[in-house]
Amino acid sequence: MENHLYNLFSQLVQNRRSIYRIKKFYLKDAGRCKKCKELWQKILKSKEEETKTILEVLKEHNFSL
């Protein structure tokens, strides 16, 4: 695998792990703090968008997942 594809794949894995942690733990741990929940929602949305973009680029390189 070419290094730049490996880097994209590695970042994809990191993003998916972050998304899981945010959904599973961080949003719940924020409790009643509206500001913190809004922040985690914003980060979650950003990570999901980044993940989608990475997947699109990997598909353009014919890298099937």
Helix/strand structural class: mainly alpha
Question: Helix coverage percent of residues?
Answer: over 70%
What is the rounded Rg?
14 Å
The N- and C-terminal alpha carbons lie at a distance of 14 Å
Segments where pLDDT lies below 50 for 5+ residues? none
Overall average residue pLDDT: 95
Order of helices and strands: HH
Number of strands: 0
Percent of residues in β-strands = under 5%
Shape: elongated
Can you describe this structure?
There is one protein chain. By secondary structure, the chain is mainly α. 83% of the residues lie in helices and 0% in strands. The protein has helices at 3-29, 34-60. The longest helix has 27 residues, at 3-29. The protein is elongated, with a radius of gyration of 14 Å. It starts with a helix and ends in a 5-residue tail after the last helix.
